[in-house]
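We examine the record.

___
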Amino acid sequence: MLPLTGIRVVEFSHMVMGPTCGMILADLGAEVIKIEPPGGDRTRNLQASGAGFFAALSRNKRSYVADVEADRDALLTLIDSADVVLENFRPGALAEKGLGFDVLRARNPRLVCLSLKGFLPGPYENRTALDEVVQMMAGLAYMTGPPGRPLRAGAPVNDMMGGMFGVIAVLAALRERDATGQGQVVQSGLFETCAFLVSTSMTQYAVSGREPTPMPAGRRAWGVYDVFTAADDVQVFVAVVTDRQWEIFTRALAAPELAVPEFASNNLRSAARETLIPMVQAILGRLPVAEIEALCDQGGLPYARINRPWDLIEDPHLNAGGMITVTLPDGRRARVPALPILMGERRLGLRHDLPAVGEYNQGETP
C-alpha cells in the first residue's frame, strides 16, 4: 500500500510541468493514466535539452492513446471513474474539445480538476509562458546572472516546482473532499511559482530598503561562502557561516594570519571579503581537494565538490537507495533520482517502467 493507492488520475499533459505533477502522484501510489495523442507524446522524441523529459517524468504511469475529439465519449467514460484530472495546455484548450472542467464535474461531482498554467487569473492569464519567460519576468534570471547579464537557471525549476505545487493543491482538494464529498477546480501557476522562489529577495528589499545585487556580484551574508580551486585544479565550494566554524576552520588550516581581530566576527569577515577571500584561496590552493574535503568533514563544515548533473549517475549516496532504474525505448537502462522523500523507512520506487505508446489501449479502456 502506498499513500495514494486507490486514487485514479487522468493526465492530459506535455513537456515538464504537467508530467512532473503526474509522476509525483504516480510515485505516491495513484494510478496515473497519461492520455497521449496518436503517435505518442512529442516529448518522447525531443532532442537536445528536451531529450530527457519523457524518461525522467513518465515512470509509474499508464499510456492511453486517444484523439481528444474523435474519442471524446471514451475519455468521458474514463474520467467518470477518475478522482483527479490534470492538464497543462493553453487556457480553454480542453473546453474547446468538449472536455471542460464544468462538463467533467457535472458528470462526476467528486472530481478534482487541476490546471497547471503559465499564470493564475489576472491580467497575464492568457499570455503564453515558458520557464525561461517567467524567470525573466519574476527576476530570477536577474538574480542568477552577473550584473547586466540575466541568466536562466540551469534546470526547469519553475516547471518542476509548479508541478509540485500542483500536487499540493490536489492533495489538499482530496482532503477537503473527504469532509465535503465534493471535488473542486484547483490551479498552479508558473509565474506565481517563480515569484514564490524570489520572495526572499523581495522581502530583503522591503527590510533593507536597498536593491539586492545579483548573486554572482552580491555581498554575501557570510565571510567565506565561495568556490575555491584546490592544488589539483579541482573546484570545491566551502562555507564558514558561524564564528564557531571560523575557529574550527582557522585551526584546521593552521593559518594564524586568519585568526586576527579584523576577522573575529562574521559581520567583520563579510565586510572584509575582498581581502579575506584571496587569502583563503592562497591557503586552500596549496592543498589537494581530498585534503580540503577531509578537513571540512572532520570540522563539520559545509562543502561540495563542483559536480556536473551526469556525475550524479555514479553518486554513492544517491545509489544507496535514492535512484530508480528505467528502461529506455531502445532497451538501454538509465538511472534517475527517486522522489526526495522518505515514507517511514521506505523510498518510493518503480512500480511500472516507462510505458510504450498506448500499451494500455489493448482490450477495454483502463
Notes: The domain at 224-309 is CATH 3.30.1540.10 (formyl-coa transferase, domain 3). The radius of gyration is 25 Å. The chain has a mean pLDDT of 94. Residues 46 and 53 are 8 Å apart (CA to CA).
